[in-house]
Amino acid sequence: MSTLADTPAQPIAFTRNAREALADAQLRRNFRGAMDSLMDKRRNQFPDGDELERLRAFGNRVRARALSKLPDLLERLEANLARNGVQVHWAETVEEANAIVHGIAERHAAKKVIKGKSMVSEEMEMNHYLGARGVDCLESDMGEFIVQLREEKPSHIIMPAIHLNAGQVARLFHDKLDVDYTEDVDRLIQIGRETLRRNFFEADIGVSGVNFAIAETGTLLLVENEGNGRMSTTVPPVHIAVTGIEKVVENLRDVIPLLSLLTRSATGQPITTYVNMISGPRKADELDGPQEVHLVLLDNGRSQAFADGELRQTLNCIRCGACMNHCPVYTRIGGHAYGTVYPGPIGKIVTPHMLGLETTRDLPTASSMCGACGEVCPVKIPIPSLLRRLREEAVRAPAAEPQHMRGQGAKHSKKETLVWKAWRTLNTSPGLYRVAMYAGTRLRGLMPADIGPWTRYRSAPKPAARSLHELAREHLGAQ
Amino acid sequence: MNAKERILGKLRASLAGTTAVADDYDIGLVTDPWRYAADERIARLRRMLEAVHGETLLTTAAEWPQRVLEALAARGIDELLVSPATAHGRRLAEHVREQGAALRLKGYERAVEAWKDELFFHTPASLTGTLGGIAATGSLVLWPSPQEPRLMSLVPPLHIALLNASEVRDNLFELMHAQRWTDGLPTNALLVSGPSKTADIQQTLAYGAHGPKELLVLVIEDA
């Protein structure tokens, strides 16, 4: 079995990727075990169902309020960060965002970047972009470091290397880092620590993401357990934070419910080891911290989601990953099969805005609509409704107005449209309906045994001898 | 038009005719479930910290310097990074002198660039103060300063933190409010809840990822 790294990491190849992943027993065991454990941990953090529901509703309100004044909050955030000495940059596309980061790197003649975990930098494919221009990027989060050594992408937004077991990591470290083979996780982590330690102070630039950007105080808040985020944002002379424009919250106190929802939903922790609040570069009398702090605000399709009241809810997301942990599809196929930076339910509703529906058209249908994602979402994003909405956007006529999404109508088919039109006519014309029912029941013997995909796994349906209408009418007549 | 104007233009156009959602912040929801009786507060903080491999010790203003010496001796550590410019730094130095202890104290007196190698590879332990604690989550509050810079609580494998019991609050909301955080935050403000850890390999918890492998919190009961 080839590894998933060999397959084209493209959402358009979803069906093939999923089939390969399903056939990989090791991968399925790794995911099943990890997801079961993450679900348990989350459940244990919310013993009081009433508190959970009230907190989710609160989290939803806080996010909805932030989005309801997003442009004003972004300007306030920029003004307060600027007052604190942080430089703010705006990028509509990932190309622009990469060019901004590269520009900063060039100004400092930077050769080496150390990165804390950042999904937005994955979205930008920053490592690739900077690497092609002579700037090396090294991931410092243990999971990201492992994935980078394997030349793979993260398979989960919180646990990047969750598709691997300790034995696979042991082999990887043995092969790539020239250390003795050990499956002892403590030892493996110490190897990672020792390997990365020197890199923190050799790096010219530290890059991080942002969990919450606080407009009121001009503060970037980051959560983590390892300390690599603090290292990356403290040791190198320059810190560049990259984040989506939706990550802003209005007030400092707004982060309290969101922080509680985030860490409890994500990893089942009451709080992460570190909550790191950065409000500016090193001051004249301070002895460490970066001399420069930059924030890159990235749109990349978010303003498209924002334009529609329903789709806007996509931007409530606080990136906890609970939806993927509880998704029966994700658990079975893993994160790589989606071929997107954000896998799982949240990936299916956010990626079409980033890449357009042309290449992501299969994602909204890769769901059993069981509703688990919507039930666990800490900020109450109605993910199943949004999946249904994206399915509709994917089959609407490409030229139909108003246009909500890039790639509208990517799955549009004239034949299907015609079938549905006929279906509607049939079901809204009583005479026609009765004729069709009569024909269907009386000619039931003509139903073919093979009706395409339906009969691949099932026997063909056989219409009843008489329709329910007929039976009901007869029943009433007899009374 | 630049990127900022284009992004804000799109967002503003999308909001045309809508009204902002009101701020109905529910203080009760982030405080009521996280309140503790006075005699339970410190116990809760210790329990939460210990659940994530933090070590805690109850001590007093008179005795803590001796506890520090004992903790270091037990680990065979003979050098400590501590600020000579803080009251607790001076107190510890005095105690070391009185006891004639072999412990070497060094300060973080130069910019990090000037002594990175020593800080990263030859500094086994540090001692810092804290601004307070949070019982609900077992968290320490640190506002690094020119005297106690950011990396002091991050790079050495053992971090010893002094926590005045009177500065422990029930929850984050109460703490932020009492300490008036919105009046002005420092360059870097931190909540620290235990030693550094990771579960990135097969969901197996391991301590001492990139930060301290051990966190020892000395809770000073009469301060």
Overview of the structural elements:
The complex is a heterodimer of chains A (about 475) and B (about 220). With about 475 residues, chain A is α/β, with parallel strands linked by helices. Chain A is about 50% helix and about 10% strand. Chain A contains 23 helices and ten strands. In chain A, the strands form two sheets. A six-stranded parallel beta sheet of chain A has the order 1-10-7-4-2-3, with helices on both faces. In chain A, strands 8-5-6-9 form a four-stranded mixed beta sheet. The termini of chain A are far apart. In chain A, about 50% of the residues are buried. Chain B is of the alpha/beta class and about 220 residues long. Chain B has one domain (about 35-220): 3-Layer(aba) Sandwich (Rossmann fold). Chain B contains seven helices and twelve strands. The termini of chain B are far apart. Strand 9 (about 275-280) of chain A pairs antiparallel with strand 9 (about 190) of chain B.
Report strand % of chain B: 15-25%
* Shape summary of chain A: elongated
- Output the CATH homologous superfamily of the largest domain in chain A: NagB/RpiA/CoA transferase-like
Instruction: Tell me which CATH architecture of chain B applies here.
Output: 3-Layer(aba) Sandwich
CATH class of the largest domain in chain A: Alpha Beta
> How many discrete structural domains of chain B?
1
Low-confidence stretches of chain B: none
Number of strands of chain A: 10
What are the key terms here?
heterodimer; A: 479 residues; alpha/beta; Rossmann fold; 2 domains; four-stranded mixed sheet; 50% helix; disordered N terminus; B: 223 residues; 7 helices; 22% strand
